[in-house]
Backbone:
């Protein structure tokens, strides 16, 4: 019983940065922009969150600055991809290398320093005392925030005028432009919003999941978020399920270590599963005739 409860507790924490990053990428891609710089944005967000918390002891400021930094980095990708019509894959990869490099250099003096202020779980009265299920009601506020945000983003994308505009721009920017929609504005707003969430996802790693700062602490989670976007079929609600599944796999390495299972095997599980899931998702996409946004990765040049 304790093992199951511990696994649920850790799984929800492990899934939160994945869910936040995935939600950001879903909106970015639904507008037609492919951002492969998530890993770099999360790395910068993780360091920024730690650094601000370490120097100011303000969690609110840490999360806010991390989101702003993520927004700024995504703005570089947006300017390159939207304004200058550059190759989105190359721009995203460059952003990843930039983020990993800058965070590594800037954080070299802070590795291993203790962080006295971290996100603490909030206990929901009565519900948190329920066996096993109570684990869902003893989490920090960003866990709850990410789940609520996913539902709101799903509703916004599917049942509001602006959500319709996002989908229209991602499917057929020429037709959207002809109908009076500002294609560049929609793409910019989605890309910047996605970057802010990804910066926040990085901050969660250093402020809650693995409090402190170590070089390379994102450990490929940005790439997993890219895979989860496809696995979720660009749907925020399905993103919750995917993030929870991968979060459970990630949490296994911490829960099962005391039972003598090799750490190398446990730490490789998320990446092995990512490869398998991407293969399965490709098959499902073909069978269900689900496809990515038609204009994904294609610069819009107004005629």
Residues:
């Amino acid at each position: 019983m304790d093992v199951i409860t511990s696994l649920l507790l850790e799984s929800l924490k492990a899934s939160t940065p994945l869910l936040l990053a995935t939600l950001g990428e879903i909106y970015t891609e639904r507008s037609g922009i492919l951002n492969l710089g998530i890993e770099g944005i999360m790395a910068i967000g993780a360091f920024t969150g730690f650094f601000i918390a370490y120097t100011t002891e303000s969690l609110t400021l840490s999360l806010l600055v991390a989101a702003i930094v993520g927004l700024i980095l995504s703005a570089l990708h947006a300017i390159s991809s939207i304004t200058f019509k550059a190759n989105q894959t190359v721009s995203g990869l460059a952003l990843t290398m930039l983020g990993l490099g800058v965070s590594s250099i800037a954080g070299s003096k802070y590795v291993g320093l203790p962080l006295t202020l971290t996100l603490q779980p909030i206990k929901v009265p009565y519900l948190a005392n329920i066996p096993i299920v109570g684990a869902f009601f003893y989490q920090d506020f960003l866990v709850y925030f990410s789940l609520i945000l996913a539902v709101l983003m799903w509703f916004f994308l599917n049942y509001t005028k602006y959500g319709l505009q996002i989908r229209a721009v991602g499917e057929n920017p020429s037709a959207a432009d002809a109908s009076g929609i500002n294609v560049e504005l929609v793409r910019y707003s989605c890309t910047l919003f996605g970057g802010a969430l990804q910066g926040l996802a990085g901050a969660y790693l250093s402020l809650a999941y693995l409090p402190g700062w170590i070089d390379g602490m994102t450990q490929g989670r940005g790439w997993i978020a890219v895979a989860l976007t496809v696995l979720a079929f660009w749907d925020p609600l399905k993103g919750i399920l995917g993030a929870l599944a991968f979060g459970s796999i990630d949490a296994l390495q911490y829960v099962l270590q005391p039972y003598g299972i090799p750490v190398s095997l446990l730490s490789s599980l998320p990446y092995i599963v990512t490869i398998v899931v991407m293969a399965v998702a490709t098959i499902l996409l073909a069978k269900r005739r689900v496809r990515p946004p038609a204009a994904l990765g294609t610069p819009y040049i107004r005629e």
In short: Strands lie at 122-123, 138-139.
